[in-house]
């Protein structure tokens, strides 16, 4: 379910969600057929990971910068980028950019909950993008840039709803519009389709350390615990 529904009826083109029947057909084979180890962390980007590892899927605009943020967090085991929340099976990046697959650019975050909590991961999520912008982040415009949290555990679901409510209150007090972030079970959002190899850890020193980063933030800190 969504946290706060927003009306996007006045949007058109890339800011209109494609109807499933109008989505591109996609393909049966994954576009990332031979995943390499994580360029920075050295871990598998597909798993399996150590017992107890949890996976949270976060969409916060361009997935290059989102992934970079999370691989630096202590307690994160691995990260990857891909496409989620849409219709087209195994889409390519070019297809997602047409807004005819329904996917949002998503970062997979695999983490050890004994070392980093869901609340800590979500605090970063809320502060490092603008969750009120609908189908865009800054100059990046389109349904692929929408904000989303796709959870896989009850702990994540509870933390997502609780942190969204708390952040919405402080944003409202500062005059911001309602949060447009989709909060949903990963099982309902559909598969996480791994993006092409060149997108994985795109901003690492081994690839494009000076590459593009877009994180339009509100500048509003997440509130401290009462």
Word description of this protein:
By secondary structure, the protein is an alpha+beta fold. 21% of the residues lie in helices and 17% in strands. It has helices at 63-71, 93-96, 118-127, 154-173, 186-189, and strands spanning 54-60, 76-84, 104-111, 136-137, 140-141, 147-151, 182-185, 193-194. The strands form two sheets. A six-stranded mixed beta sheet has the order 7-6-1-3-2-8. The chain has a two-stranded antiparallel ribbon with strand order 4-5. Helix 3 runs parallel beside helix 4 (154-173). It is globular and about 45 Å long.
Entry summary:
GO terms for molecular function: peptide-methionine (S)-S-oxide reductase activity. This protein has 226 residues and is of the alpha+beta class.
Keywords:
17% strand, Peptide methionine sulfoxide reductase MsrA, oxidoreductase, MsrA_MetSO_reductase, 226 residues, six-stranded mixed sheet, globular, single chain, Met_Sox_Rdtase_MsrA_sf, 8 strands, alpha+beta, two-stranded antiparallel ribbon, peptide-methionine (S)-S-oxide reductase activity
């Amino acid at each position: 379910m969504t946290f706060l529904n927003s009306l996007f009826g006045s949007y058109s083109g890339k800011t209109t969600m494609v109807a499933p029947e109008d989505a591109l057909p996609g393909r049966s084979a994954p576009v990332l057929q031979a995943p390499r180890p994580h360029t920075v962390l050295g871990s598998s980007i597909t798993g399996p990971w150590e017992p107890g590892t949890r996976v949270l899927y976060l969409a916060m605009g361009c997935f290059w910068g989102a992934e970079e943020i999370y691989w630096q967090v202590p307690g994160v085991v691995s990260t990857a980028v891909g496409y989620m929340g849409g219709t087209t099976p195994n889409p390519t990046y070019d297809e997602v950019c047409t807004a005819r697959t329904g996917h949002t650019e998503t970062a997979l975050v695999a983490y050890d909950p004994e070392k980093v909590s869901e609340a800590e991961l979500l605090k970063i999520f809320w502060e490092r993008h603008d969750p009120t912008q609908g189908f865009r982040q800054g100059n990046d415009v389109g349904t692929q840039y929408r904000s989303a949290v796709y959870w896989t555990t009850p702990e994540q679901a509870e933390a997502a709803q609780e942190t969204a409510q708390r952040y919405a209150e402080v944003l409202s007090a500062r005059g911001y519009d309602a949060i447009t972030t989709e909060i949903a079970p990963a099982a309902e959002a559909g598969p996480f389709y791994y993006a092409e190899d060149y997108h994985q850890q795109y901003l690492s020193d081994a690839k494009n350390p000076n590459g593009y980063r877009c994180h339009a933030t509100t500048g509003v800190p997440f509130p401290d615990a009462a």
